[in-house]
Design goal:
About 45% of the residues lie in helices and about 25% in strands. The chain is of the alpha+beta class. A hairpin with a 6-residue loop joins strand 10 and strand 11.
Length: about 375
């Protein structure tokens, strides 16, 4: 009877006090049974107990979800890092294969041709290389069609050990080409030989500066720079007369110069300036002669007509001496129409290094012709 009374003595207030311990499972067995019996018959206390236990359950569930998301994020981060690493490895591998195995197309301007000459057997010999020190030429192939021989190759990067070792000095490719029934020889887009003449790289470089108008100061500057005129003259000023024909370019040199040197410049430089500007009619130059030179010449001029006449005489002399049939052009400007013709002009001028233009070209002072 007493036990039954004790079981029924729990009131709502007492149960509310016991609920925190009940929820935390801290009550003894008898007290827990008493609270259970009260809750079974008291909806209000039962609701309070559920309100106390619900947040804890949700927090636990939320914690599980957070842990799951953290795991997913961690695994995703690893996958992303692995994907980025694989991409980097693939790109670096592709770059290395491209640079060290496959190579790249050769730029004709990067090709170096050295020691080119035609031997007694009628064969062209030369050394080919690329100007880029860290690259070498590989996969050399040749084709011949209609008397034109073309060599192709790839430009491949050298590895560090190869670049620093003895192989760095063996990059040059020696070639011997039989010229029988051959009219042109090309190496990686670079013209090397044509119709009996080795085409010098300076010939190709100078033809790239050719301009149609003498009224373009920038174009004229490129021609002067290509000729390195500033280095040889020690300074000069340029003036133009383009109001009416003849169009005239005047060069005034700033330092004292030997008249003999001026004659050489006339052949080597002024002829080239004249031929590289399509509508230029005359090149005039003036200078202060060196003391004790024994000459009073202070200037001169080169005209298209005079240059045409000079080149005709030089061509006739060359054909007679060597049994060639080089054409005699009616207009001096034709020498800038192709690398072959330009090279012929340079060859003829070099052969005539002792040739003196004479008085039709010069005058004794800057105001009047002799």
């Amino acid at each position: 009877m007493e036990a039954r009374v004790m079981k029924n003595e729990l009131t709502c207030g007492v149960v509310r006090d016991l609920l925190p311990s009940y929820v935390e499972n801290l009550l003894g067995e008898e007290s827990k049974e008493a609270v259970d019996r009260h809750l079974a018959g008291c909806p209000e206390c039962t609701a309070r107990k559920e309100a106390m236990t619900a947040p804890a359950g949700q927090a636990e569930e939320t914690a599980k979800e957070v842990d799951f998301l953290k795991g997913v994020k961690k695994r995703s981060g690893k996958r992303v890092a692995l994907a980025v690493l694989c991409t980097v490895v693939v790109l670096v591998g592709a770059f290395l294969v491209k640079e060290f195995v496959i190579g790249r197309a050769v730029d004709p301007e990067s090709i170096s041709i050295q020691c080119a000459e035609v031997d007694e057997q009628g064969s062209l010999t030369f050394l080919a290389d690329t100007y880029w020190g860290a690259y070498e030429l590989r996969g050399l192939r040749s084709t011949e069609e209609d008397g034109i021989i073309r060599y192709t190759a790839r430009e491949v990067r050298m590895n560090a050990f190869q670049f620093m070792g003895e192989e760095a000095y063996r990059k040059q490719i020696p070639l011997t080409v039989s010229l029988k029934n051959v009219t042109e020889v090309w190496f990686c887009g670079r013209l090397v030989w044509q119709e009996g003449l080795i085409i010098h790289p300076d010939t190709l470089r100078m033809l790239e500066t050719k301009t149609p108008y003498c009224g373009d100061p920038a174009a004229l500057g490129r021609i002067m720079d290509a000729l390195q005129l500033q280095e040889f003259t020690g300074g000069h000023t340029v003036s133009l007369q383009t109001r009416e024909r003849p169009y005239v370019l005047t060069l005034k040199f700033e330092k004292r110069i030997s008249p003999f040197i001026i004659w050489d410049w006339t052949e080597c430089y002024f002829f080239q300036i004249l031929v590289l500007v399509d509508n230029l009619d005359e090149v005039v130059y003036a200078f202060d002669p060196e003391r004790d030179s024994g000459k009073t010449v202070t200037g001169g001029r080169v005209t298209v007509e005079y240059a045409t006449e000079v080149m005709a005489k030089l061509t006739e002399s060359h054909n007679l001496r060597y049994g060639t049939d080089w054409p005699i052009h009616e207009n001096f400007k034709e020498y800038a129409e192709s690398p072959l013709e330009y090279q012929r002009m340079i060859t003829l001028l070099e052969e005539s290094c002792s040739y003196k233009q004479g008085y039709p070209l010069i005058w004794s002072d800057s105001s009047g012709r002799s």
